[in-house]
Amino acid sequence: VSRQLKEEIRRGFARLEDPLAGLLAMLESSSDWKGKGHSLGYCITTELQLWIKMHPAVPQSGTKLKKLQARVLRMLSQCPANLLDPLISIYQLHTADRNCLLEHVSHLYLQGNYKEAAILSIKLKLQPDQDVEKMCTPLLLQDKANLVEGYVAEYPELQRKLLQTLDKWCDPSFNIRDITRPYQGLSRYKPEKFNRRVLSKLVFRLLERFNVDPALCPNVINQRHLRTLNYLFYKRFVEKTMTEENWADHIQSTVGENRWLQGQLVQSLLRHCDARGAARWAQRCQVPPEMLPQAVAEELQKLHIQDRVEEVTKPDNYEASKKKDCYQLPISRENIHFLQTWEETLQCWEKVLQPGQVVGVDMEWKPSFGMVGKPRVALLQLALKDEVFLLDLPQLLKQAEAEGEKEKLPHFIQMLYSDRAITKLGYGMSGDLSSLAAICSALKDTERQMQGVVDLLAVDKQVDGLSPEHSHEERGVRQPEKGLSLLVQHVLGKPLDKTEQLSNWEKRPLREEQILYAASDAYCLLEIYERLCKDPESFGLGSDLTDSLVGKQSKKPRAKKQLNKQEAPSPSGQERQGPRTEPSDAPAPISPQEFSVVCDNMLQGLGRYLRCLGVDVRLLDNEDDHRKAAEIARQEGRVILTSGLPYQTLRSQVGEGRCFSVNCSEKAKEQALQVLKHFNVQVSLSDIFSRCQ
């Protein structure tokens, strides 16, 4: 706005006997102010707001002001968002009769102006006198979760009420249609955005943002724990990549004394074990005998308490043979030190903080399995040429706090990472440091101050070597290597043994297998770096490897130890953005009637969408094992559509190009377009709804 116009506006206000009434009359008679952007009406209104601050005698009170407030309220429902605050300020609406304000908002709500009612309520701070469920339900149906979040932001009691409401809707026995039925004619209604999965994600977001106790939402937490249970059973009994001890630790911490989860555990045991095996695991996981089916209860009575739990699926031979084929730590066990006191740790520092030192750095934390909060580092590994130090961070932090020296740990970490004379080796350092900052906020800026670091994840992207698929074929193991393990295999000849990766790293004492795994994870970085520096050309790297890499680090946090079934990394250790199957030539076009697929149980939405387009679709049920998809595909000549870790298992069980990995983070429509494009399926109008839905 030009200075000349501003001066003219101010002179106009000075000539008016009642500037507040004058502005209102002008706005009521003009349609210009209703447009978006900085209209003339907006300019005049904001100038009056500034003019009033310089002329404090202008604001009115009493009956005259109440009449003006009533007129302003009638305008606010049509008012552009940028005029709300100036008008509320000019006409002192925060001093208006609260009942009148609530009645006006209620009128907006009854007219179906839910968004406007909520925004005005926030501006006038009316939320404590309103029904949070009633106000927020239509907003959620219109996919306005951010507005709902803003509505309860300043009111802890409303946050709790909203979370309890959302949790009630996520109860599997609750009929969500009871909520949606009164809003059938709602404009901009997005039913696909109103389901348990979306609501569950919203609950977790709100729990974390408002720091509310998750116990307030038992339904959502139970369902997330159930998904964790299913994932653990998959890892143990299908993929067979989790040790008995790890599995039992996680099962016990997931289920605890929750009766409902104990019931789900029993059902899963019966699907994967015989009655005797189920009884042994039920005993190990402390499931109350009265919750067991009769056959399992009878087997339990036969067991002696001292019996060692036998391995039901007996993967020990596989695990033992795999360890022989894995990277072996070249230092003796006595040179691996587990540090729990500051006296021991100070001796470690003296060795680590030496100019010219090369240090392999790694961290471990308990898998979150998608629960609330960032992962918290439980173990910091520092590897030198002749020894490895494992720092018990929770214990050291606790001890430092008790001694009033909380700055001890951040001081050491900052000295280490900011010293250019010490070379720090890591793999996905950005992810490690963000998890470290979760237990020690003083370290949140460490990444910006880093000097002398080599992130081998950045090197990994440059190294010429076997793809995950080739390594899988040549070595003949059950799972292809990925991430650091693949780099270790290519550079040093053998992959890492990752069976302890998903351990409970917060449990003490650590098992011997965990200690060796943690030490290997850090020490292998030293050997990789030494080998690459000696002969960079043979790995497709430039001869100036050291100069080009020191100081660089990958910005992509690694996904290890945060895995859950829905968010598993791709075999390369990086999130997949597109399909894994890559045909050399585009296939010949086919119609949906000629295209037959079987959809894994995490892709039911995609399956229904494809069926609408005329594709011959079979859907796995929620309780079906992923392997059933391979059976159906072989028997009926179908293509498997899956995602995440199951892709690796299923693709080896069908012909080439007969298994396709879909991006789970996309909506069903985008997934369907991806599938149709990949297989060159041409959809015509006559195909749509040509099959029974």
TrEMBL record:
InterPro entries: 3'-5'_exonuclease_dom, Exonuclease_MUT-7-like, Mut-7_DEDDy_dom, Mut7-C_RNAse_dom, RNaseH-like_sf, RNaseH_sf. This is MUT7 Exonuclease. It comes from Rhabdornis inornatus. Residues 565-575 have a biased composition (Polar residues). The keyword rRNA-binding does not apply. Residues 553-563 have a biased composition (Basic residues). The keyword Coiled coil does not apply. Residues 544-591 are annotated as: Disordered.
